[in-house]
Design goal:
This protein is α/β, with parallel strands linked by helices. The protein has 15 helices and 21 strands. The strands form 6 sheets. The protein has a 5-stranded mixed sheet with strand order 2-6-19-20-21, with helices on one face. The protein has a 5-stranded parallel sheet with strand order 14-15-16-17-18, with helices on both faces. A hairpin with a 2-residue loop joins β20 and β21. α5 runs parallel beside α6, α6 runs parallel beside α7 and α13 crosses α14. The chain is globular, with a radius of gyration of 25 Å. The N and C termini lie far apart (89 Å). The N terminus is likely disordered.
Length: 485
Amino acid sequence: MLPSRLLVAAVCLALVPACSSRSEEQARPTGVTVFEGARLITGDGSPPIEDSAFIVENNQFTQVGRRGEVQVPAGAARVDLTGKTVMPTMVDLHGHIGFQNVAEGTMSKETFTRDNLIDHLELLAYDGIGAVVGVGDLVSRSDLRGGRTNWGDVPLRVREEIVPGAALFRTAGPGIAWPGSGAQGHPSRMDVSYPVSTVEEARAAVRDYVSMKPAFIKIWVDDRGGTKKTLTPPLYRAILDEAHKSNVPVGVHNVTLANAKELMRAGVEGWLHVPVRGGEAADDELIAIVKDRIARNDRPNIWMTPSLITTWMDTQGGARPAWLDDPLLRATYPPREIEQHWGDPLKKMTPEEVARARRNFEADGRNAMKLRAAGMRIVNGTDTGQTRFWIGYFNHMNLESLVAMGMTPSEAIAAATRDSAAVAQLNTGEVAAGKSADFSVLDANPIDSISNTRKINKVYLRGQEVDRAALKAKWQARWKAPQTQ
């Protein structure tokens, strides 16, 4: 029999591996990763952090700073990003997704399924967009005659989901417009909005609308160059009054200076497009109205998604812009659609058409920047969803258009990340402690050239890497399949 002191020693020795294992398990955090060495654009407009380190735990950022100054938990996994640039994923506040069959270049209500909507959310994720607000979405609504449209509830269901490898989805519902003057373009979208022509219908539409709990209520105030009737001031004032009773914000598509003033006075929070377009200029009276609302704290968070993307793209007509051959674009859209919708039309533009596009872009850009200086916030919105409006890629074109109209790259990135997330009320858009770990890893610095946001190496959503190779393979396999007639 062993002496007692030897027995104790033997027992301790026997327990050492188990004790050591338990100690290591306690010291090794599960799901904790430190990303080190990248140039970090946090999204708040501050200068990039060189040789950064940030920690992701439980799908959120927990620490952010310079390498060597961040306290790394014992056992954390390490990812070396030396030579890369990191920025937050973007938020798109003006998407018309769900209707488009990207592989076939068609649109229909029948296409608006859960699977197709998620496919579009994956397109966004591939391009570094972490969240989107759908506008003019296909969802059952009152027909204002005692019945319902029976279009289903796909947008309402998908907004409750967190789909791995896909952007978050929020909905602004179907919208409200004068009959026939809402969403234009493809017929599948033209009857989606509530059609109102009386104050009673307007109020009834809002009461039905707010039951969906939309991100905001979208209205159209646009006579389409005098070809259609549109919402009148009594109608949109009734919409605003009813919406604000339920504390639901309103976003508007409008064109004229006169309507912009009335809408601003009435309390509209958001503009989907520049508030004054079509050759008119934002004048001193409109600027004074904006400043007065902010000074009085009367719904002071006023924002716009300029959506000058297509006009900016047209300024490069008469030639073949390099972005038509961008690997990022060609990973997500079939070559025939790229050429049909942009390559061929741009090539055929005359010098006069290009000059007109440049004048229009400069005029609308001046209006946007003048209103921004008065206190309106510029945020990210792309108007994507129709066949020539590329889902995902247009967010990068939008950044380039913001810089072209006078914002710095840092300001444009903050607009598309932090500021857009704030409007959507989403916990994303910044690389900061407590925010969702949504970020893109880039091969070049977009502060040097904003087009470098397109040089994506990896995308992470909620701390998990998006399998971009698998998504690309899935999409391109569809292009090669026989197309339905």
